[in-house]
Every structure is written in structure tokens, then in C-alpha cells.
Amino acid sequence: MSTPNQFDPSRRAFLGATMGGTALSIAGLPSQALARINAPHEHEKLKETTEVFGFCDMCYWRCGLKIRSRDGRAVKIDGNPEHPNNWGVVCGKGNAGLMVAYAPNRLKYPMKRVGKRGGGEWKQISWDEALNEVAENLNKVKKEHGSQALALIGHGSWEKPYHRLAHAFGTPNTTSPVFGLCCGPRGLANMMVVGRNLTGNETIDLENCKYFLMMGRNVTESLHNGETLGWVNGVANGAKVVYFDPRYSITASKADEYYALRPLTDHAFLLAMINVVINEELYDKQFVAEQTLGFDELKERVKQYTPEWAAPITDVRADDIRRLAREMAAKAPSVFVYAPRRMTRSSNDLGTGLSITILNTLFGVWGRKGGVFTPQKYNVPEPDLPEFKHAHIAHRVKTGGDFDFSAMDIPSEHIVDEHGKYQRADGAGVMGRWPIANAQYGLTNEMWRAMAEQKPYPIRALITAGGNGFLNSTNYDIIRKALETIDFYVAADVIPNEMNAYADILLPEASYLERYDDLQIGGAREGYVAVRMPAIKPMHDTRDAWTICKQLADRMDLGAYFPHESIKELLDDRLKKAGSSLAEIEKVGILKTARDDKINFPRDHGNPLKIKTPGGKTKAEFVPSMLKNMGYDKALDYVEQVRPKDDEFHMTFGRVGYHTHARTQDNIWTADFMRENVLWIHPEPATKRGIKEGELVTVTDQKGRSGEIKAKVTARIRKDTIFMVHGFGHWDKRMTTAYGQGVADSDLASYEVEPHVGSMSMGLSLVKVEKA
Amino acid sequence: MSDTNTPQMVKVREKKTIFLHWFNATCWLLLLLSGFGMISGDFVRLAPAFWPEFMQGLFNGNDNLVWVHAIVGLAWVAVFVLFVLLNFKSVVWPFLKNVLVLTPMAALRDTWSMVVTLAHLFGIMKNTQVPPQGRYNGAQRLLGTMIIFCSLLLAASGAYLFFGPMVFSFADDALCGAIFRWALVAHAASVFLVLVGLVAHIYFAVVEERESLEAMKSGNISVDFIKHHNELWYDELKREGKV
Amino acid sequence: MVAKYVMLADTVRCIDCKACVISCRAEWETPMGYSRDWVKQVEFIKANGMPEVMLFPGRCQHCDEAPCIEACPSGAAYKREDGMVLQDDAICSGCELCVPACPYDARWLNPKTNTISKCTFCQPRVDKGLEPACVQTCVGRALIFGNINDPNSEVSRLLAEKEWVKLTTDEVNIGPNHYYYTAGEAIPAEVMPKLHDRHLAGKVMENVVNPAGVIGVGGMVLAFLGAGVMKLIGRRNEVGTHENQEGK
After folding, report:
1. B46 contacts C75? CB cut-off 8 A
2. At what angle do helices A444-453 and A476-485 cross, to 10 degrees?
3. A574 falls in which pLDDT band (50, 70, 90)?
4. Residue C108 forms beta bridges with which residues?
5. Which of residues 107-136 of B touch C (CB under 8 A)?
6. How far apart are CA B54 and CA B68, in angstroms?
7. Is B202 left (phi over 0), alpha (psi -120 to 50) or beta?
8. Domain A182-298+328-375+611-636, CATH class in plain words
9. Neighboring chain B residues of C205 at a CB cutoff of 8 Å
10. Is the pLDDT of residue A26 over 60?
11. Which CATH number fits domain C5-198: 3.40.50.300, 3.30.1600.10, 3.10.580.10, 3.30.70.20?
12. Nearest-by-Cβ selection for C228 from B161, B177, B203
């Protein structure tokens, strides 16, 4: 540590340059007489930098960036003030993006596994060797088992080319954790009721909203710049915040009212709210009459869910429920019932999601100022490509959205559809399995199971693009078995982690500061298209996702799906079809449509809301017909949730503002604020167990999984609940900062499956805590 | 040989020694002016606030003033070192032998003679005789001894204050920073100590004993002066046949 | 009128995302383990038994009567006319006398440069017409920076609009230029400034060496002036006697 400084006389910049100044000051002396002269000083300088545009890869909100570089080194990440995802602000994680590029533990060159899979022994190989080997192995799997025997799991802002490669290869089995492990149920619920997904980059008119009913939406810690800033502005503009969470989060500290809701009982509270809104006729009568279906049926179904019924279940008093409903109605439609970002919690997430959407619909928030706006689109066509083998893929390519939950084509048979094509192995969008699960994003949890169990048909090869199957999922045994069962596994990533430790071939990706990527196309108040440009040359022998996929495609006779010579050519081609060019967008970073209130808030301008539900209706469906047809409308009814016995706790986990999932614990700038996670426990149960602040405790779930973690004894959590920050407990020794720090919540969370959607019900886990 | 109008003179100093004295004096003047100008900050400042402001403004920043102070200080040290090396046997060693007060008894004796001398100045203890003095009287010996040690301390602490931050990493080793802070204290304390003596030194040279000031210009001094002020030295000179 | 810069922190808008801290780290390349700014999270139980969390983004408060400047022996710590308390790296020797002088703990010895580092209100950025790095990146727009002497500035408008407080106590009230808005909540003691025990060397310098030096040198000068005057009087008397004798 201790390195004495070199002898460095330059620390005292000698007279030379300032001798003239001295002479001058002597000359000027008489006029100044003996008055006090302000001593001249040197001060810090702002060094010159060059600037390029990009968008962030530190979380999935993807803020617009300007990256400053000096002498070939990226030195500062600023926000792009023009980008509607962040309006120029950048969070701590975004600022710490530099330490992704400069991380000492990055994957630096292509590697081939030597020794046992997952054994952690590698040898460096060339890109040609690596790509040849991948192409050979994938072709072999295709020849022996068919193209459906390949699975792809992608996670991140650069996963798109891998999806395209897998689709071109001919497999339907491409998946992202975003549906089954995160937002699936909420996106699905919105789709079912109003034909809107309302996830990804939420389209809430936050600034003008007057009442936020937040169902555990910890918007300040599970933070997305534009969303958080919009919400803070809304609060500053006088919006009332009512926040529900078993934990007193930072968002709770900003709320006007806080309710330590009993974990998993959100649905009961929301049903009671619906009950009051309907019974007291607090809903938007015109909207309900003109643009909705099934109101009477809903009224009948929620009759039993009175506030008095909900109170003992939720720990929220009946008169509070009534008051909140009335308060909200008074402010409607500038109100919003805010779903949590990740809604893979209870055994009826679909029902919870539906009740949130129903409540918002009753308040008539859609297409209204202060409610939910209708986004604009910036139309940038995809290049012309040969046909893909599977229908849902063609749909995805057509819409071009990166986060489209709207594909609801549901084939009828189990493994093979009516055209003889294989259906998804995870059962997403497959009748008889998980028909309402999104067939584009799939159920990552079920894909791991399919690989582990080789059902309903063999999956023999896996590509992962980013992500961490262990820490973002919950059943380590299944994932380990899957990784050990398949014939070939190729992982592409920027950083090492527990999952890619199992790869046969490890492909190092360039970080998002070193590369071009496909365009970011989004819909906010304005439609926009944004570009990611390299701020620096690749530090290591790495390549970008598009180039890797193109070079793999060329080796597998799939070159037609990557018809451009380079990623730059692709971008230029796409932008030219949209009336711009790469050169043009590189100057500004983002192109936007003009803001248009008439599009954003049609109902404020006398126009009806455009609705098309998956059930084919042009009105919002309080009891979605598609669900009804499949018998899933039972999700509307409350399902009793698990309750801890005296010595047990609800196991909860969540985010902190400066870590993203399991991806930033090895980032030295974010780890600086939180190197390890701690277990939040209320003082009362802590005292009962003799646990003091900072002491090591053992936390054990009902399946016997356990870990040791330090305690944070705090009144900021319910007595029957514990909490820990997600993403810690890494055991991959290549992550030298994160290794062995804290406990992996994912190894304690439940791996029950939500019975309607097929997503995970991670919140059902009950744990015991004892002094270690 | 003796002339009643021109008193008998004796050469007691060589030119180089005289040069060294005035070089030393000049350095001290420059170092004091710049040094008092360098130390800012009300808690640690040595001179009234206007002085550092003025000096730092004059030199276009304290950085330059520090350089001036350091260069003069280094030159001061260098010339002294050179002088000692070249004239150790002929000048320095005899000087040290005459001046250094190292034993308690000697210190007591010199203090007594200094007290009496100073008392006479203010018209008290008129009846007490100053004991016979050598080449340097008690006060001079005490002052000289103090100045020698203070100078060594000043040189050492000054060198550390200037070079310390360049050579050591204070952040890595807290001791280096602590030494710096104490060096600052030692540097300032030494200066004050020397200044206290210097007041008397200058007073005697300028007011009381103009002849000794002359002697520091010409190197010659009258035998009478020695006889009167430095009886023991006179005896010594006589023994050696120099007078 | 010359500008006077102030920082406003609306704690209601702060979400403890650390963007300001990391932004500052990147902008000024501060070494790990040190930071020029921070966000303090204070947890406590309210009178009604409910938990509460308050967030206080902080940095150098650019005080009007900055004790760091008074403690700095080399003049490296200085205050610019526009109120910014800055640090002249070329002069700073890293003696750390200023570190305990700051009741807001805003100063630290930078192991990369071996000089004192602190928040400068991003003076080099401000001089170029940019906002401080922390302000530009602040997700909740909790940090607002500007010229209080410009009645049209955002800070002037906000200061007039809401009730802002400064972090001062009976003990420490040195004119900070950093304002906080807490929506009327009392500021917890944890974030209040505290006097620190200063370095012994500094105290010795201030309380022993300097007074002793002044008394010593001053006393000597006075004493010998006295002696000189006495001698002068004595000589005049002598001359007077001599003349009298001659006149006789």
C-alpha cells in the first residue's frame, strides 16, 4: 500500500512563468500602496474532453448518455438532456458505468474450457477458433436433435442479435428473464384488461399525477432516472403518496401515508379498494360506460371483498381503505395505482396485476393528463430478412419492439403445433402448459427446467448473452443440472459470473462504452430513436454482440439474416429508411418526434382511447375474455397466502439505488457503498433471539437452504418479515470484489410457480433466523 | 610604536569571516521577510495579516514566495557548510571552543555575567563587577550557543518542510505528516528564540558598542577595547605576543 | 455585483442514489476510500413510534468564516471573491492542519497527490458556465446551485419560495453557504457540524509559540528601547553638566 512519492519538484511550479507577474505586481505596487493584495492562486482545471452519445447498460431503463473521453480514456458519463428516459440526469449506477469498461475482472479474450464443466479452468483461444467451435457444435446439435434443441437466454441491452441468431438458427426457445422472473404478470394483466403492456419504460404522466397509490413500487431505490425524476417532480407538484410495503424504504420516507402491509396480501387490499370504488360509485362513469366491458360481472365478483374482510388479512384498517378510495376518486383521473416493478411474488400475481389495472381503469387514468399517456412511436423499420421458422418470431421482428408483451398467438397443441413446428420448450404460449405467458420473452425459469429435465423434448445446446441464471433465478439445483446436462454451452458476457463459469466457450463482449449496438427505439411522450457510439477503443480482445452473431451466422450458412457488412452499415441502413442517417444521429444522439398532447392524452381532447385487447375487444375488459375462455379468470378471486409460524419470517428482498440486480456487486464504484448485503430484522424478534446490530445470523428456509449474513436491527421492517438487498452472495472467485460478500437472496427465495402465468412466486418463502 | 591619537589596533577577523557574518545577516533578513509572508492562516500566522497578503501578492502567489524562501535558505545552509569545511581548523573550531556553552557550570557563570551586564544597562547592580570575560562575554556565548543550535534546527526543519512533501507520502504514513507539523512548530520557535537574542545583539552593536560594529566591518579592533571588555582575551593575546 | 455561489439541497427530493458521489469521483478522479461529497442517511424513531429516514447530501459548505483557511499555514486554502473555498494544490504541503479544523469533515488528504482535497463547488466547471457535476447528475434534482446575488437565479427564487435552513449550531456558526430544505423537519444531530480536537502541533503553534514569540521579541524590543532611551537621557545629562561646567 505504502508507496512513498517519487521526488517531484514539479509540485511546486517554479517562478519562471510568473516572474513577469511578479515584476508587474512590483510595478503596480505604488498604486496599490500597502493595501491588502489578494494573493494569486492556482486552482484545479477542467481537462478537455471529447464527447460521444450512447445509452446506458447499467440497468434496463436505458438512459441517454453523453460519454466524455480524454486521451483515449472514458472519464465521465453525463446524461443526454434530450433523452426522455432521463432528461440529462444519471444515477449512481450510470455514473459507475466507467468501472464496467475498466473493471480488472472483465472477460478479456475468448476462452475454451479445459477440464470439468464449471471447474473454472480455461485456456485462451483466438476468435476464429472460438467462433468455429461454436458454429461446429451448434450445427452438430441441429443435425442430431433438430434446431429446436438450442436455447437462448439473453439479458441486457445488447441481447437482440443473439435472439436473431437463434431465430435464424430455427429455435423457438429464446427467452429473457424479464417476463418470468420479473415484470411478466403486471405486463400481462395490463394487456388483458386494456391491451397495453405498461412496463419497460412506463408511460405514466408522473409530473401531473396528483395521487400515487404505490403497491411496493420502491421508485427511489429500484430507480429509473426518468421515472424517478418524474415521480419526485410529481410529489413536489403536490401529489399525495400512499405507500405500501412491509419495509420502510426510502420511498416510504417520502410518502404522506405509509402502510406496513402484510406481505403477499396486496391483492386483498386492492380487491377491497375495487369494492369501495364500485359500491360508492367513485369510478369514472363515462369511461366505464363508453369504453369498458364486464363492469356488472366485476361488481358481482368483488362484492364479498369488503374493507372489513380485507382488514385482518392486510393489516390495513377498513376505514383507511374507504378513505383512500374516496381520496383517490376525488383526484381521478390524475391518479395512479403503481404496481411494483417486479411482480413475481405471491401465488396469484396475475390477480394482483389484474386488480391494479382494474382500479386504474375504474379511475379512468388511460389517455388522461396525470394518468397514463399514450406513447408516440418513432418508426424505424427493421432490415428485410428471410422468413423465420416460427410465427411469434416473425411478429417480433415486425413490431421491432424490444419489450413487446403484445404477442398473444396461442397455438393449440402441446409440443408440436398444427404446422408440425416445435413449440416452446418452456411452455410459454403453449396450450395446456402456460398459454398466457409471453411467447417472445418466454419463461426463463421453465426453460431451465426444460433443460434440466430434457422435457418436453431435448434441449442440447445453450447460448447465454449476459445474465446470471443462478442469482436471478431461485432454484440452483435445476440450473446446475441444466448446465451439466446439455452438450454445449456458449456464454457471451462482459463480466464473469457463476453461470458463465460453466461455459464451454466463453466469448468476451465489448462493454457498452466500446461499441456500436442496434438502435434504441422507444415510446415516451415523444417517440424516439437513440444511438450507442463507442467512446473508447476496446480495451481487450473483445467484440460486440452484432459482430459476434454475424460472424457465427456466416459460419452456419445463416449469413442472410445478417445482411450488413458491419453494425455501422446496419444502423445507417435502418436510419436511412427512417429518413435520417448514422452520421446525422451521431451528432445529436437521439431523434424525436414532436410532443403532441392529442396523441398522449386523447381523452383530454374528446377522443376515445384506442383499445385492442388480446381477446379481440375494442373496449377494456374488466373480466378479460381470453382469461375467461381458458378458465384463468379465477385469478380475479383472492387466494389465501402463506403466513409464517411464530418462529418464521416472510423472506423479502429488493433493490438499493446503487446496485443493479446481481450485476454491479463487482463494480468497485458501486460496491464502495455496499460491499455486502445485510439482513433487516425488527428489534423485537431480534431481541428475542439475542441478535444485535452487525452480528452474524443464520437464515434458513423451509427447504433447508441457508446462509450466514450480518443483521441490521431496525424498526423499518415488520416483525414478521426479514429483508435483504438482492444480488449479493457471489461465489465466483473471478469476481474479486463481490466474492463471498453477503448472502444470495435468490438461494432463499421461493421457486414455486405462479399457477396462471408460469412465472415465479419468489415471495412465498418462509425462513427462520438464528444467531450464527 | 604607540601613537596617542591613533589607538593601537589588532586584527581579530579575516575578510571571509566578516563576509560570512554579513551574508548571514542578509539571509536572515530575507528569510524573515519571506518567512513571515509565507505563513498564512489566522491560527498559525506569525506576522499581522497584511504582511502575508502583501508578500504573497507581491510575489504573485505563495508558491513563488516559498521558492524564494527555500532558495535563500538553501544558499544560507550551503555557504555555511562550505565555510565550515574550508575553515574548520583555522576559524570554526576555535570559534566553537570560545562560544559553546555546554556544561551547567559554564552556563551558570555566563548567565551571571550576562545578568550583571544587562543590569548595568538599566542602572541597577551598579556595585557588582562583571567578571573578567574572554573573547566572547557570557551573553555572547549564550546567544552564540543558542543561535548555533537554533540554526541547526532551522536548517533541518526547513529542509523537511520544503522537501518532506516532495519525498514522503503523508497520506501513506501519518508520522510523516506529524513530523511536518512539528517541524513547522520547531521552525517558528527557533526563529523566535533567535530573534529574542538578536534584539540585544543589534542593540549592543548599534548603540552600546559602536566599535564592535566597526570591527565587524574592518576586522580590526583597538587593544584598549579588548582590555576593557575582554580581559581574559587580552591576557591571552598578550601571552601570544599579538599585542 | 460579484457573484456569490450557494448550494441548495432539497432533502425531500434526495433519494440516496449516490449519483452525486460517483459523478464527483469520476469528474475529479478522487481515489477510492475518499470522496468530496456524500449522502448521509439518518434513521431514527419518531415521537409517534414510527421509523423515519432522512437524507442529507453534503459537501464543503463554503463557509463565510472558514476555519480551514485560518488553520492553513501555507495559504493553500483560500476563499474566492464569489464565496468558493478553494485549495491551491501547488502550495499545499498536505500537513492536514486544516482537516480537523473543518466541522463538516469536508477535507481529506489525497493519497494520489498528497495534497488536501475538497469540494470546490466544481469551480472549473462553473467558470466554464457548467453546473457542478453533482448538480448536473442529481436524479431527483435535489441539488440546486447558483448565484444568490442574482435575483433571477433559480436559487434566489427557491430560497424565497421555501423555508431553508443551514447546518449550524450554537457552537458552530461560521456562515455556511449550503442550504437545506427538510419540509419543516428538525435536522438530526448526526448531520450537524462538530468541533474537532485540532492537531496538537497546531495548538502549540497558536497558543504557545506565537504568543511566546510575540511576548519575547516584543519584550526585548521594548526593554532595549528603554535602555536606549535611558542612555540618551544619561548622555544629555552628561553633556548638560559638561556645558554647565564650561559656562562657569
Report:
1. no
2. 50
3. very high
4. C117
5. 121-123
6. 15
7. alpha
8. alpha beta
9. 43-44, 184-185, 188
10. no
11. 3.30.70.20
12. B203
Domain ranges of chain C: 5-198, 201-248
Measured CA to CA, the distance from residue A681 to residue A700 in angstroms comes to 14
Who contacts C181 (Cβ-Cβ below 8 Å, separation ≥6)? C8, C9, C10, C11, C12, C162, C163, C164, C165
Q: Name residue C60's amino acid.
A: C
Closest partner residue to A7 (CB to CB) among B58, B166, B173 is B166
Low-confidence ranges of chain C (pLDDT < 50): 247-248
pLDDT confidence of A537, banded at 50, 70, 90? Answer: very high
Chain C contact for A670 (CB, 8 A cutoff)? yes
Domains in chain B: boundaries: 9-86
Q: Which of B34, B63, B67, B160 to mutate to test the interface with A (most CBs of A within 10 A)?
A: B63
The answer on pLDDT for B1 being more than 70 is no
Residue B243 near residue B237 (C-beta atoms within 8 A): yes
Cis peptide before A333 (omega within 30 of 0): yes
Residue B231 — very low, low, confident or very high, per pLDDT cuts 50/70/90? confident
Cell of A453: 429435465
Residue C176 preceded by cis peptide, ω within 30: no
* pLDDT tens track for C171-201: 999 999 999 999 999 999 999 999 999 999 9
Domain made up of A649-771: CATH architecture: Beta Barrel (2.40)
Alpha carbon of A738: minimum distance to chain B alpha carbons (Å): 26
Q: Is the ipTM of this complex over 0.85?
A: yes
CA distance A195 to C124: 51
Optimal mutation site among A1, A6, A7, A37, interface B, most CBs of chain B within 10 A: A37
Categorize the per-residue pLDDT at A420 as very low, low, confident or very high, splitting at 50, 70 and 90: confident
Spans of all domains in chain A: 182-298+328-375+611-636, 649-771
For A34, name the nearest residue in chain B, comparing CA atoms only.
Answer: B54
Is C19 within 8 Å of A78 when comparing Cβ atoms? no
pLDDT at position B151 over 50 = yes
User: Given CB atoms, is C6 within the 8 Å cutoff of chain A?
Assistant: no
Structure confidence at residue B40 (pLDDT): 87
